[in-house]
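Bit of a strange request maybe. I'm writing a small parser for structure token strings and I need a real example to test against, not something I typed by hand. Could someone generate the tokens for this chain?
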Amino acid sequence: MSWLRQYRDLLGMTLRIYRDEAWFLVMINVALAFGLVLGLGYIVPDMNETTAIYLTTGTATQMIVTVGLVGLPQYLAQAKAEGRLEYFFTLPISREGYLLAQVTFVAMLALPAAIFAVLLGAWNYGFGLSLSPLLLPAALLAILSLAGAGVAMALLSPHQMLTNAVTQLVIFYVLFFAPVLVPREQLPWLLRQAADVLPPGYAADAVRATVTNVPGTHLGRSLAVMAVYAVATLGLAAFTVRRRG
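Reply from user aminoacidic:
Good idea to test on real output. This should exercise your parser:
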């Protein structure tokens, strides 16, 4: 059986396993996007166009972060603790194909909420969208870089509790201390340096650059950094599963 066919079959199996929960998870993500786009707008006294764009595109990025760096590693950590991960790894299948199928499933959960966030924000705050032909590559790289980091985190973490704790810190960081909902220039020096080496800020920058014409974005650099993160983290994950015996 070819690798591509294994990947297709594993993705189909994952979709069948979660066929009753998938739609509910998508709606939860959409509801979260709705709450962030509108709710955060209530606490900003002067909502100019730039602020609205950052809030909207940051929320779209947050949806990808939530499923890629929180939901996916928590699911894999639980599967590892319960032995389900080891069971799949004993089957005559591609381990990398299995992990990529999980990443693809996560992307299918995240993209509807991210798209909804952008459309809702543009409608509610009245700014125009300027879609770039690089939107799809940017979205795919954002998902792969963040979900790849989540997979590596889950596989390398020695305990499920540690994985859960780290993922909660990730959400806290992205919401308040990363250049996702706010411009990089508004952050203190230390957080700006941290943003230079962590992927959420680059994912948010790529989303802003490909759906709006807001100045100050660096699409080429963000795509390059996300590509490096995707290759490095997914490669690390593949190396880790190969060493599990």
